[in-house]
Amino acid sequence: MLIKRPSDVRSSEITSLGVYLRRRELMIGGAAGVISALAGCKSKAAEVARLPGVKRGPFATDESQTAFKDITTYNNFYEFGTDKSDPSRRAHTLRTRPWTIAVDGEVGKPQVLDIDALLKMFPLEERIYRLRCVEAWSMVIPWIGFPLGDLIKRLEPTSRAKHVAFTTLLAPDQMPGQRSSSLEWPYVEGLRMDEAMHPLTILAVGLYGQAMPNQNGAPIRLVVPWKYGFKSIKSIVKLRFVESQPPTSWNLSAPREYGFYSNVNPDVDHPRWSQSRERRIGEILKRKTLAFNGYAAEVASLYRGMDLRTNF
Ligand SMILES: Nc1nc2c(c(=O)[nH]1)N[C@H]1C(S)=C(S)[C@@H](COP(=O)(O)O)O[C@H]1N2
Ligand SMILES: [Mo]
Predict the structure, then answer these.
(1) Ligand 1 near 88 CB (within 6 A)
(2) Of the residues 71, 74, 77, which should be mutated to test ligand 1's pocket, given the most ligand atoms within 8 Å of the CB?
(3) Which among 6, 12, 116, 123 counts the fewest CB atoms within 10 Å?
(4) CATH number of the domain that 76 lies in?
């Protein structure tokens, strides 16, 4: 495959972001990946990968960004196995086109959204966020996406919609981890409506300037930076607006250990380990975990009056 530099790409070729992303996915999965691996240096693939028209969004942390290699090889994506290295080795079997997201439940405009149509609906922004896993490690990731709230407004949820329930693809032929019962499948998550509408909450379609790698939840995943990483559900195929609090995968699997809210909280330990500190991937010394993962100024008011020990 011929690898083009950005200067070789005519603007007529990049008018459709969906087409561009799809081409990128083919290249990442194909020759470009092999060539850049062989070159072993700052690759042309990385140059070509910049998504067009991505502006820096709000809330960016100025902490140093975790290496692309760590972000894409140290993953939790149980659909591809339970080891951190499984997703990067196995997620190439995920087919991310065609891809649709079904929208239903308490909503004025139930519909099936095609990913490429969705990508044309909203300007993409870079959001540099901390991600804090419940396993007490963290990363800083330059996501690309758009606010979930912007999409929700267009879908016109009814007044009965108090929560949003999210579902990951169920496809054991593509997702080998779904052939074992490490979790109940499909993976499900949920947010309260005000959490879903919060401007920090995004649907991410890329990172480090490129289309989302499969192991990070291609083609579209949630990112909720003040909550433990598992709330940020990957490879989403369904949004359902509901009245009552929806079930969530980790809560179903171990309700004593993982609650619905799962706000990052250094004062509420996991029953089997402390949450007061974390290891930033790529660093040796541990750091203190911050309330709401450092986003307290933005989100603490959402939980005013709630006991965050019982609502963990
Ligand atoms: N569908 C699905 N989404 C998922 C998971 C998963 O196993 N399946 N793991 C979660 C967990 S525990 C974390 S920490 C983050 C990790 O995201 P990353 O691999 O992009 O860093 O994804 C979350 N989203
Ligand atoms: Mo996690």
Answers:
(1) no
(2) 77
(3) 12
(4) 3.90.420.10
- For residue 306, being part of any structural domain is answered with no
Q: Predicted confidence band at 70 (pLDDT cuts at 50, 70, 90)?
A: very high
* pLDDT for position 50: 64
Whether 182 is in a domain gets the answer yes
Establish if 120 belongs to a structural domain.
yes
78 lines ligand 1 (CB under 6 A): yes
Into how many domains does the chain fold? Answer: 1
Q: Which ligand is nearest to the CA of 249?
A: 1
Interatomic CA distance for residues 55 and 58, integer angstroms? 10
Average per-residue pLDDT for the chain: 88
Measured from the CA of 177, which atom of ligand 1 is nearest?
A: 7
Cis status, amide bond into 98, omega within 30 of 0: yes
Count CA atoms within 13 Å of residue 35 on its CB side.
14
Residue 296 lies in a domain: yes
CA distances from 31 to 2, 5, 22, 41 (A): 9, 15, 14, 16
Residue nearest (by alpha carbon) to ligand 1 atom 10: 230
Least confident of 8-12, 123-127, 240-244, 257-261: 8-12
3-state helix, strand, coil in the chain (%, to 5): 30, 25, 45
Cis peptide before 219 (omega within 30 of 0): yes
